[in-house]
Amino acid sequence: MSTNPTADSTPQLTRRRFVQGSLMAAVLGGTALGAAACSTSTAVGGGGGKGSVSFFSWDTQTVMKPVLDLFTKQTGTSVSFSYAPPVPQYVSTLQTRLQAHTGADVFILTAEDKQLVSGGFVKNLTGQKFLEPMNSANKEFMTVDGKVYGLSISSWAGGIMYNKELLAKVGADKLPDSWDGFLDLCRKLKDKGITPYYDAAHDGNFMALWGLLGGYFDSRTAFPDADIFAGRTTFAATWTDPLVAYCKLYTEKLTPKAVLGLTGDQVVSEFANGRVAMFGAGTWNVPAVQKSAPKLSFQTEAIPGITPGTSYWTGAASPGYAINPKAKNPEAALKFLEFLASPDAVKAYGKSSGAITTTSNYTPSFADSITNQALGARSGKIYLPVVAWPRHSNELSQELNTQMQQMIQGSVKPKDIPAALDKKLKQLDAK
């Protein structure tokens, strides 16, 4: 894979890529990116005579226009484009339109909207040839009860960003390959008077925890989410060991309580100004670090695992393109998805959005500063619990955030947090 930066890659890598994994709605408590009203416009291309397909997007027209124009140029089919900002406004608008039978032919299927599948509002795409280039993690995200309902072509990945100069002061030139080794690195940094590590706990973004869980579950060949929600196991039985291991950052005071007073942006600023050696970071943080500290030498790597050699990335597949079973132009809708899966479309979307595309039929280029994360996303070794939870994601995420913040303050023991999630799930299911 080339690591040469594309012209538009780094500037586009904003927090927007992060929230496409559902974190804005679920982990950050349901806040919206913006309060703008839905805007509607039409992208019209030459060719004519082959009809039109309607598309409801949560990517803006600026992002999608190069893709839509290329589709029209290649097929002669125009696209009627409409938009609503993610996450809550898009989700509510989509549900309203589909239930009123006024939905677009093609729309974005999100984690929050998967209940639409059981309601018969999403076309089953299983067996379609255009799904073949889809990454395994993306395909799994778009699968419900063994059937595929969407085309997801990109993902995001987050890990641990570190200041090379500060790590060198304790004789390290990269992250250790185990969580115990990482904790030892943190202890050495603390002994040198250097604050070792921050996660954006104030925002509910426990980046290292998500990756630690992912590596732990992956090393045991099975992720427990489906079994937890089916009542076959519990959070207490599956989460306790990795969560207690993560919480040593706080119980051993390797990360100070003061982290609760820092927003995500302030955490980035602390890192850029050399006041913390490492933090949980994604590609969207790279431009801010580079702008604030252009001479800073840094790198991002996957989160070390409890078992040596099981490092894993935090991350999620992006929401996918889906078809309305009551599409007015079903043939054009299928043609549109077939195009969106093509190398030309994937390339155009990656360039206009800055997303890390993951299909097997196109190998994108990335700036050196995000190459590790891009490789992580494309590997499929990414995990974000909230995306894997089939129901109550907002409520459970808020409960986890509350419990974690209380743990950092010292009023909750780490081993009690998974049990609190089990209790909350039981209460929510009983309603």
What does this structure look like?
The chain has 431 residues and is α/β, with parallel strands linked by helices. It is built from 20 helices and 14 strands. The protein is globular, with a radius of gyration of 22 Å. The relative contact order is 0.20. The N terminus is likely disordered.
Task: List the main descriptive attributes of the protein structure presented here.
single chain; 431 residues; alpha/beta; seven-stranded mixed beta sheet; five-stranded mixed beta sheet; 20 helices; globular; disordered N terminus
Strands, helices and their partners?
Layout: H1 9-12, H2 15-19, H3 23-26, E1 39-43, E2 52-57, H4 61-75, E3 78-83, H5 88-99, E4 106-109, H6 115-118, H7 136-141, E5 143-144, E6 147-148, E7 154-163, H8 164-168, H9 179-191, E8 197-198, H10 207-218, H11 225-229, H12 235-251, H13 264-272, E9 278-282, H14 286-292, E10 298-301, E11 313-317, E12 320-323, H15 330-340, H16 343-353, E13 356-357, H17 371-379, E14 382-383, H18 385-388, H19 393-409, H20 417-430
Helix pairs in contact: 4-16, 9-12, 10-12, 12-20, 13-14, 19-20
